[in-house]
Amino acid sequence: MTTLADQFQPGTFVDALRFIVDNVGFLLHLAGEQLELSFAAIGIALVLALPLGLWLGHKHRGLFLAASVSNVGRALPSLVLIAIGLVVFGLGFWNNTAALVVLAVPPILTNAYFAVDGVDPDVVEAARGMGLSEREVLTQVELPLGLPLVVAGIRIATIFVIATATIASIAGGGGLGDVIVNQASYGLAGVVGAALCVSLLAFLAAMLLGLLHRAVSPRHGSGA
Amino acid sequence: MATQAAELVFDEATKLYEGREEAAVDRLSLAVPAGDICVLVGPSGGGKTTALKLVNRLITLTSGDIRIDGTSIMEHDLTELRRGIGYVIQQVGLFPHMTVGANIGTVPRLLGWPKQRIALRTEELLELVGLEPEDAKRYPAELSGGQRQRVGLARALAANPPLMLMDEPFGAIDPIVRMRLQDEFLRLQHELRKTVVFVTHDIDEAIKIGDRIAILREGGRLAQYDTPAAILEHPADEFVAQFVGGDRALKALALHRLSELELRPVAEADGAPRVREDTTLRDALARFVSEKSEVLLVVRADGTPAGAVAREDLLR
Amino acid sequence: MIVAAGPVIPNFGRGSPCEVNNGTFCTDWVRAHWSDTLQPALVQHIELALIAVAIGFAIAFLLALVGLRVRVLDAPIGYWADFLYTIPSLALFQLLVPITGITVLTVEIALVSYTLLVLYRNMVEGLRAVPAEVIESARGAGFTRTQTFLRVELPLATPAIMAGVRIATVSTISIATVAAFVIPKGLGYPLFIALREDVFKTEIFAAGALAVALALTADALLHLLERALTPWTRRVRHA
Asked: Which residues does chain C have within 8 Å of residue A79's beta carbon, measured at their own beta carbons?
């Protein structure tokens, strides 16, 4: 194999940490870029997928759609999405945003669907029988009961999007990926340092959403 | 508690499902007088639950009409109609994410009652159905099956609806607790005088609970609609006779108590076993058999003798 | 980290009019470069994924055999896997480079790591879901512990295990495209080259479509395998 044939270099990690310390401002700026891109994509995906998933779940329609979207979504490699985004939209804001939105929609849509679809039908019937309007059934009964699953979907989507936003650097996405894919300028220490930062960023985001997930999960048991 | 009950009329009410030949409910016509309990009973496939759900339009009528106090249910706004009807189901369907208090206060909240009034009403209802005021803060998962059904009843009564629909409300509860809930429900109804439509598949429950019983047969056709006594004594046809069971004479005995009989003089029961006058004739008959006696001494609640009853008196 | 370009660079700028104008999809380029670019990349991609899932399956199975009886493993494996899942694949590949170098080993370590969580969880949950009375009646009928495991527990857990294998396989095929950031292998590599070569559309669409088709085909084949392995589940579900 024709490679640069690096050998085991534990020193690289020390150099990587030094790189991080020396470039805190720069790395923070890149992390900001990456989060900006990620949040824009998540926001758009939420607007598109959440109401659709909740509505389909409420109507118990579109099981096939919800299931296939999640299957196809998993089969779509993020690198392919980034590349096709660039082909379709050209370099700019939309090429990466659109690719990330496509990536974020399946988990949000599918989880929203199954969250609402899976609410105990007896509880829903009782609500309807008591005179809750369809909107009230959704907002006061189905959504609160399905919220943990909805948030879990948003958490998965966010992890995907932040990870893929790193790859988006090769298509002008900016962010910490700029350093990772550019060993020529930053050296292996820079690449590894940026990779550590990306991991930390993704881990923090996952943890925050994990806390949110716990906050909306029931303390009142699952019975009744 | 001031409340008025509503008269409920089924007028040729019919439900046909697309692609199915037989109707689920077939030209059902019956009138439930205000303040009465009407029990819908019959084998599965008889359309009892369908008939019930036609009333609050969880299922839509195919043809015919249902009127509450003379107004067709189709003329009401859907949510207004449902908010004015109490609805209790077997699985209770309590909202697991809300406390007992919030569950009970659901409809008043939708109706925009002030908070203070909802709190007072919740407390009143908890007491009415035999729960503690502190239970308001608990979640449904912390309650037993019987307690949940009490909360379900309280929730349905919250806005003081003139009409109650109850779909096998005690069906999932063990026999001993079910008996107690039935007794308490009858006591409550004595006080509240709602119009109630009550679905069950248990003929004994129907006889115990109902002022009137509607027996539905396969295909959603009404086989007989009458008082429990009339149905037991004069079943309309072979199907009804079969459904109420070969022991219908015994069941009929359960509808009357010793106090309703013309008793013999006390002297005829010298040394005979004692039996309280609020005993049903069915239980009294059991005493005759177990005591191997021809005559029993009937006593009042305070223990004083009221008269004597002989075995043949029951069989008239 | 882009490795010096091999023979996969497209004819962009020198080929047919379609290629010169960077047309949306030049079938002549695909025909001309199927055997020197796309086919090798596809074969390498299948190799990368197959090795990762096979090793992942073996490790997860051994872990599950232990975790099945000792619940102590659940929490640490769960935490580790959750942590691992949040690390972007590109970062994980690069973090391994100082340790294992720019090698297939680096890529496989990362890919195997990603398969472990879903495989382990589905195995353990599938095996734990086998009803105790079924196991008891097997033991009562004279099966040894090993026989019970092989003939009763394992078959009954197969649907859950296969569901895990399907998810792991599809995910691995997807993530393996990112391996091209480290080694010039798999369907990610032509994608990568096409992006550098001024976004050569034909190659992007061809390689991208192959990657998606590979994932969906693998999923379908595994679905068929699952049905063949669990004939008893078919009639029940539609009854």
From this structure: 177-178, 180, 188, 191-192
